[in-house]
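Follow-up to my earlier ticket, as requested here are the two runs.
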Amino acid sequence: MVKLKESLAGPGYVILNTIRALNIIVFLDIIASCVVMEVKIDMRNGFFFFQAVTHAVMALISIVLIITELPILRNYFNRNWPLFGDEAGFLGLALAMMILGVAVLGNLNTEAMSQKSLGLAFWRIVISAGILAMVMSVINILATFIFSHRKPHVSARQVRIYGAGAKDQREEYPHPPTYTPPEPARENALKRATKRFTGRFPIKISGPMMRSNDAADHAHLQPPLNNDDAASSHYSRNSEGVPFPEEAIKSIVIFFAPIVLPRLLVAYRSFNASVASRPPPRPIPQGAERALNLLFIAISSPSYLTRPKKNIFQLTKSRITTSTDVLFTRLARLRPSETLTAADELLKQSLTSISARKIYLAFGPDTITKCEFCSINSPSTYLFFYLPFQVLLPHLVHILILLIVTSKALSGSECARWRGKFTLVASLVAFCDIYIAATHDALTGGSTLDRAAKNAPVSYGYYYISTLARPFVFGVFDLGCAAIIYLSSTHRFFFKQPSSSEQLDQGVSSALKMLNGVQSKLHATSVTRNAIVRDRSLKQRDDAYWQAIAAVEDRTRSAGAGTGTGPSTVVNNIWEEPEVVQAMSRGTYWSWRRGSSTVGDECAGVCSRGDGRAGLGVCSVRCRVYNS
């Protein structure tokens, strides 16, 4: 059984750390349920205050238990709260978790905490906290008995910390032996009476002092140091108790994997679903096209393409220890007419020491010559002058360009959806640039300065490299933004289903567009009608047309109309007679066979194949109307 438990120590490291992550999640759920019950508390009488205090205390206890599960304040808990220390198991934690779970579920017995009062979502939070707390308490109890070793006195918490090396750590740092004094012998009454009057003299005698040769003689009596730190185990520590970097990484992965992996899986599935359900690619919209043009103009601007000037040490191939006169004499030979400019003269007055030259290489010529409050004795003053204009200002201009490019009024909604993300990433890039500049040591840091200290020729400095790299980073960043805008606006990637409000807006806009078209057609019809009514010839043609239509569509015309004979009877419409319907069907079929394209052709075909009845003569009127 002992060997079985020792073999479980390695896997127990993984299992117990997984249980630790689940414990923290359960306590967070209990805190959320306490907050919900605090908000939804019933205030019908004056005793609601004590119920609110109960919920607050439960949340506070959960926070303390979360701290006991984290690798912080371990010495404090070992000294003051040994029930949650490294020497104890998880029984105290499981008992507290069980009590909290029962207390949370007990609150659901009231009317104010029912599903109807809380709502389904809040009610699920409360009941899940109670159930998970009770389940995890049982799991912690089982883990305590499974992974603890009673004979070498190794607790489950030590297995969670050291893994398979817990036993070796226990042997290497054992507890000091406890001394139990023997039972005093029974004293007679006379001696007790004598001590009552004479008292006791607590005389303490120290141990004998050993000489050096005695210490050497007794060296073999001391226990040997155990240098075996379970190096063969993947879940162990070194002899100093410091975790290896690989184990620290494993601990972080085990702790965050249950939280990160499900989110990554959901993101992967949503990405696959969006790719599968995306519509076919479309031409790039005008707003996105304007945004891409602006980004192209920004990338092609001179501020992105200009190269910073080289420092004078690199121009003159000089060392940093070269004297000032020799350095600027060489520089004058490179200037027009071999004469120093006003900026060169001002720089010559500033580069009088090695420290000033190193600051010049780190922060550039403007910082060393134009800063009036800077001092060589305080290099941070040069940093305060350098950051606002040389680092922060270019990033602010870059962020302003991104805000203009992604504005909804200029580029449309396809680009506006990336506004916050682009701004956040650009702000992170600015923060990294500021951090690198702030942590750069102008006097001792940098490989260039190290080479300069060895009297090697100076090639570049931090100022030149950062000034050259910053526009390059801006250009790469803008290219990435342009690629994202192009792919998302053409529905190739990053397609986002429109929300309900956007769909409603699209429906309203399409309806308004259709209504505008109908209104324009009605207006054109009204204008045409007015023109027909005001023109006499057009009015006569219109009247003739409607008279013919009325004669055709009149169901109550007399059978002998036009002849003056016969009684007045009601007949069906001519278009509903069986002979006319059959003729029109045959005409439609024949016109399809011949490929006739006009209604007039079809109507003429029907009339030409009529059976000679007088009523079919109306077809000629229809045909003339359609052809006109």
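Run two:
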Amino acid sequence: MSLHKPLVKKTISPFKMERRVLVLASLLTLVALSDVHSRPAESHEWRWTCDLCRAAVWTLDTALLLQSDEQAVASALSKLCIRLHIADSTVCTDTVQLFRHDVLTVLARSLLSPRSACGLLLGDSCGHWNGGASNWTVRFPGVPKPPVRPPVPPPPGTPVDRILFITDVHWDAAYKEGTNAECGEPLCCREGDGLPAPGAVGAGYWGDYRKCDMPMRTIESMLQHIATNATFDFVYWTGDIPAHNIWQQTRMDQLRALDKVTGLFWQHFGARVRVFPAVGNHESTPVNSFPPPFITGNLSSSWLYEEMASNWSRWLPNDALHTIRIGGFYTARVKPGLRVVSLNMNFCSAENFWLLINDTDPAGQLHWFIDVLQAAETAGEKVHVIGHIPPGLCRKTWSWNYYRIINSFFLRYESTIAGQFFGHVHTDKFEVFYDEQTLKRPLGIAFLAPSVTTFHDLNPGYRVYEVDGDRPDSSRMVLDHHTFFLNLSEANASGGKSQPTWHLLYSARKVLGLSNAFPQAWDDLVVRMQKDYSLFDLFWALLHTGHPPGLCRGGCRTALLCSLRTGRSGDPDLCAGLVPAEKFKLMSDLLLSQRLC
């Protein structure tokens, strides 16, 4: 496995370097906090713009000219956070202190300057960044690509595997019913938030549609319902276990959440069902902080990966535990003919500030992925890919390399990879992959399933995928999926006097009118939704697990349809016919503003 070393930096005077580092640390800390606090459904809330980013650079740089030390910039940053109404004084101050050391360490070793900081954080239209060796390409083995066989539905009555899929649990150990659900902080409904204002409704017993995460009782209710009523063969679980209180989390908090929820899976499913987990971006603290393996010692992620390996050893083989300890990713054989690859998608994340040092194939993960796929192809295995962050939301170079691995017409593996399963966005979506030669032939699909957490304005949900089962020449592809949910309004109406009832929300083929669940059918669905507003409105409601925040029209609708075609980031050609190339950046920004994660 190749573990890439950081690039050698050019020499900069100590004073300029210190000032540069502190300014950039401030910006990254503000962005991390505002990503959790700002939500599109509430347009009055604060949101980053290019002008605000540049103003922040100027303000912090000026403060450092007057007094260049870490505590001075921390004080200035806290004041700026409060002045911009990103959060209250406690949240601003705690966030600055939590992020300060890690971010300063990263930026002291990076090539980024304040002038290009806003371009990195907000996109090319706000500035340009050349650092981090951001243009790189994966290498493929010199083995001829096998013939591509278009997927064919299996004969009626053939075996089907059922995969339980759970993502984004976001357990809040401090959740308390009746507390203030509109507390003004990034996360509410918690002990210490006090009572609601006179006439306002407090946090619900089973959860809340406002900025609140999940009480343990609701997670246990879901797992008990699944264990009692659902039939499935194995489980994919794609991370984000802790709550969104990112300004006050410790390593001990994160490990407690990991241990507790993993234990619940074992309690309800035991040894009879194997669980295949993936790491989310909220597992670490600070949030999104996942150093590549060349970072060692106390700054590394070994504290997290070791605990994951220990917890997940009940389901995974030793060679999988070995790569988890290195970089949080692994592969394992699910059954004869089917292999799972669990990727650490934090190594593709724009919010992972450690990649400012060097973002060239972090941890050598994509080259390792290619090796696994080549071995699977040679052995006649199909592969399911699981991960947290979907590839269409990754850093551009990583995303394009991943897309090439999955789907390139001239290269490889479109016949080996049978399914892609992700979470992170909290909503119910998909990303269609097309051949690279024409961008017209749909040949892959990444499924993005709804979250367990209600954060925010959602019903809790989980999914069961039906895939082609054990038979000669099985495609192992998804044949249908079924999404289950808890109607939170209905559940809270009893005030906790009775157990909630989890229902089937919809079955994809029946409700969406799909001839099958292969990539062409999902591409056809996007085409149909362009013309059929009733169908689109149905999809919009399902996207929010049965609790839509009003209608989606105009730019909202166009951005969503575009995102369903965008399996790689920053490519306007994928939305040709939907969005003019000159407006693609605007649509991409609108889509990002709609993220709930």
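The only thing I checked on run two: Residues 14-126 form one domain. Let me know what else you need.
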